[in-house]
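User: Structure please.
Assistant: Input sequence and predicted structure:
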Amino acid sequence: MTAHFTAARSVYARPEAPQKTPRSLEYDLLARITQRLSLAWAARKESYPGLVAALDENLRLWSTLASDVSDPANSLPAKLRAQLFYLYEFTSLHSRAIREDKGSVEVLVDINTAVMRGLRGDGGAP
């Protein structure tokens, strides 16, 4: 085989990863963080620092979302932007309650799951 043939075969033989949309990237990120929250909650007695790290990661995500929806240039409808900002505020307060042993991650998992359904386009599905 020639060097050109080998190079061409290696380029054309491997399928490139499909392009991800911003929605699918957000979905994937929410899914990973939600899974970490669930796993950290289940292991909280063995690893409280793991729970705190998962809560912080979730809150960083929601803080970023809140910043995005606060931008006047954001093209989402105003009502949806306000609802997402409210979810950030709730997530912040509830995360603090969890750290103080006054709540569970269940509601945070439910919120993230509902947003993932919306990103998937089946927001009304159970």
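The chain has one domain: 23-120.
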